[in-house]
Each structure stands twice: as structure tokens, then as C-alpha cells.
Model the fold of this input.
Amino acid sequence: MSDGSAGHAARSRVRPYCETNGPAPLRTFLHTADGISIDSVYDPGRVVYDGPATPADHPVFVVAHGFTGDVDRPHVRRVVRVLGRYGAVVTFSFRGHGASGGRSTVGDREVLDLAAAVGWARSLGHTRVATVGFSMGGSVVLRHAALHRGAEGTDAVVSVSAPARWYYRGTAPMRRLHWLVTRPAGRLVGRYGFRTRIHHRDWDPVPLSPVEAVPRIAPTPLLVVHGDQDGYFPVDHPRMLAEAAAGHAELWLEPGMGHAEHAAADPLLTRIAEWTVTRLHETG
Done:
């Protein structure tokens, strides 16, 4: 949770600002606790305040992309454009993705990548931080919120299109993904076809699963979002997550929505941003 005072920010009035001009983004490589370099971008956002404002007045969204995504993908930049109307945005490429170092562990040590990004957001002066994750990133934000507090912790969590449990192979897309991750030929396809370098080792030990992480998140506000037409994870996954929260999480089952960033239309992203800003003000 945030260890800074957010009283002034809670009293500020924020409204979306849709023009594209403003401060330039900042790009750097962060270093995780286990020494991996993470390609990261800070966008100050396009928010109008009533009176002078500092980063402490702005909420910041830290966005965790899905498997085979990266910070430069068009669908990730679209998420930034929408969320940037409500606050600053930090995006980054998970290990093994894009220009980041290391190899993907498909949701395990990626928690350290997110912790580094959250810590960077706080070091830039933001006292109210929300994590927003999609698919694999959705599982990572849940596990991160359960495992990290203080300077690398979050003040609100949004998990979109996340699995509830590991090793799920009940849909054709997930069977293809398991082939990509577990077979040498699949990892070659991942490297050269998707710019994703995948670790060849199995998990040892098996990390805390998303559904096991959820009970540990309270009292941090939690929103679980899932499409009822998700081709990867059927709706029993978000329902399991919400049930594990024992009334603490809010669940949105979105009619007609498919999977993750590609399926999250701008109006849904806007509702997510508004929910997040409201919860950050309430907890500030």
C-alpha cells in the first residue's frame, strides 16, 4: 500500500482531457530485484486539474500487458491513450518480451518486473498507484498485490481476462499456448514470430496461483473484468477469482467481449479508469 499521504490528492477534482499535446514520455530501463533489465515508459498523462498540481496529485496506472505483448504494441499504446486521460501511465515490457532482458517465465518471476515498475512510479512522486493487467498480466497484478506492500505495492488492482488457475488446457488457444511454451519448436516460434523469449525450465516451485493470491489482496480494492466470449478462459475463471475474494472484489462480466487488450474497447477502458480513480480517491 502507499506509504505517502494522499489527502491533498483526494480533494483534487480531476476530469478527462482529450487533447494529445503535453509533456513528452520518459523511457528507461529498470532493473528488477533479480537483475533483469525492463524496458519501461512513463507517460505523464493528459489530466486537467483545478489549480496547480504535482505528480502526487495524479494517480498513475501501471499497465501489465499480456503474453507476447510489449510496450510498443499498438494495442498497448491504445490502452495508454485512454488511461492517460485520467492520470499518468507506466508501461513496460515483461522479461523476455520486446527489448527487455531475460526470458519469460509466463507469470512467475514477472511479479518482480511489475514491482520494479510500481517502485519507479512512486519514485517519480506518485502517491496513488493502480495496477491494470491483461491476461498473463492480469494474473501478475493479482499475485503482485498479494505478495508486495510498501514502496513496491499497489493501491488498487484491475485484472482483465486473467486465468484463475495454472495449467489450464480446456480451450484450443490455451492448448496452442502450452505448445508454444513447453516445446522447443514452440519456443522458436515465440522468439522469431512473437519477439518473446521463453524460458525452457518448468516452474520449480510452482508459484502461488491467481485464485490463491486473491484472498491476500484485501483491503486493496480489486476489480475483475472478463468477457463472456473469451476464447482462452471461460467465465468460470473470473467467477472463481471473485468467489475467492469473499465479497471484497467487484466482478464485471462483459457481454460480447473476447480476450484481453485487443477485446477491451475504449468505452470499457474508460469505465475501468473511472472505477480506478474513484477507488484511489476513496482509499486516499
